[in-house]
Structures are given as C-alpha cells and as structure tokens.
Amino acid sequence: GLAYIAVSTPTIPAKDQVKLAKQEDQVKRGEDLAHLGDCVACHTARDGKPMAGGLAMQTPFGILYSTNITPDSKTGIGGYTYGEFNRAMRQGVAADGHNLYPAMPYPSFAKISDGDMRALYQYLMYGVEPVEQPNRQNGMHWPFSMRAGLSFWKLAFLDDTPFWPYPSKSDAWNRGASIVQGLG
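Below the sequence we write its predicted structure tokens.
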C-alpha cells in the first residue's frame, strides 16, 4: 500500500493533456513571472544560451545539471502539454514520469496560482527561443542517484496545495495576498 502510493506517478486531468494555444497577454505575463522567479539563473550555464540548461550545481549528494526548458521539442520542454508542465512544476515529475530532484524548487512553485502557472507555460512555449541542447547527465552519488527514493521524500515533505489567503489574517496581509492571487 504505502510503497505503491509513494512511487505512483500523479495523473494528469484530460483537460490539461493539451498544448495551450498562444495568447500574447499571457506570454507577457509569463515573462514577468519568469523574471520574478529568476528561471534564467538556474537554467542557463555560464556562457550558455538562455534557458538551455547545463548549469552545474554542486551538492553534498553529487552534481546536478539544470535542464533545458526552452521550447525545443527534441531536447527541451517543447513537447510538454500544459498538464505535464504543471505536474513538473507542482509535483516534481517530468513528462516521462521520472522524479525531479527538489533542487528544482517545485515545493515552492506548487504555491502559485493556476493562472500564473498557465502564463508561465505560455511564456516558456512561445516567448523563449528554442535551443537544441541535450541535457547533461547528473553526477549524483549512490543512493541519491536512484530517483525512486524521491517519491518517499515527496511523501514526507511535499505540500503541493496552492496558496490562498486566509480570512482570519489581517487586512494588510490579505491585501498583499490578493495582489499575488490577482496575478493568477
């Protein structure tokens, strides 16, 4: 029971198994969100093409390389449906079903609104130049190189519930939360 729950891959609702059509206002909004999230900082190697990945991150568990998040359909995320993108961003599961290391801060991205997630998807699909650049092989030490163990990490630590303001909080706190939600 518990082992099955921990290693099962979250499903994607049928309505999200599509590639969203381009909407210019959403692309611009997604660009603003990508700048706020500083996606380029991790997904661009030194002297590399923007968002094409390859940045080495030394961890106590080994070396991780950031991935290509350009809309290149061969080596990037260009083939991702919105549902696959949303699942990767909120639950740390790639389109092919493998677990992502939490160096990709999906526990934090899980908190953004659905509208913001859709806008970010629009930007990455339609506002970023596709770059054909294969992802580099990570150099994680055993047993951390075994991604199945990440399912247990997620079971213990991942809260993928989107953020919503609480009526019991102060008016100033809710105004700030409303601004964030208003972006979504």
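The chain has a mean pLDDT of 80.
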